[in-house]
Amino acid sequence: MAPSVRERILAAGLERFHALGYDGCGVQEISDTAGVPKGSFYNHFKSKEELAIAVLDQYAASSQREILLDANLAPIDRIRRHFEFCLARHQQNGFDRGCLIANLTAESSTAVPDLQAALRSDLDRWTESLAAAVKAAQEIGQVRSDIKASELARFLVSSWEGCELRTKLTGDRGPLDDFFKMAFALLSNVGPHQL
């Protein structure tokens, strides 16, 4: 079944925002990429900001965050598999594109308040899911318990996003490999004096 006009615009928005950033492309370019008239864009989205929010929702939904809540996996494995999925996604897309969430966050300003609010909300939901996995891992001794699960989760998300921005700059996976090395050492069930 052929994608609908809305689906084509969403796919084009994802591709253009990921490749060029929010400010790097306009409605006309997105419409051209989707192969639809500019008027069709406005039949489905009121603005580029509204499209960016829909693209963000779609991107987040495809981030396999449900792995973090999978009770069939040991909690530490949930965390590792989630970030391994994120790494594989970047490898597939090319490391020079970075993460759409990090890119939009770096570019967002008070000129796009709804997008900023959507980004904050998405990062909060991601952090909460990660915190649930961290807390479950703490409860069975897989992760250190001298730091609150919510703080560890917030740090991991912020660190991952920062490493993704640096990966976009370097065009290779080195910063993400650093994340895995350092993040799982931090989570390790040992005291801070032993790290």
TrEMBL record:
Annotated keywords: DNA-binding, Plasmid, Transcription, Transcription regulation
A Pfam family recorded for this sequence: TetR_N
InterPro entries recorded: Homeodomain-like_sf (IPR009057), HTH_TetR (IPR001647), Tet_transcr_reg_TetR-rel_C_sf (IPR036271), TetR_C (IPR011075)
Keyword Cell membrane: no
Domain HTH tetR-type span(s) in chain numbering: 3-63
Alphabetized Gene3D superfamilies for the sequence: Tetracycline Repressor, domain 2
DNA-binding region, residues: 26-45
Xref: PANTHER family: HTH-TYPE TRANSCRIPTIONAL REPRESSOR NEMR, TRANSCRIPTIONAL REGULATORY PROTEIN
UniProt protein name: TetR family transcriptional regulator
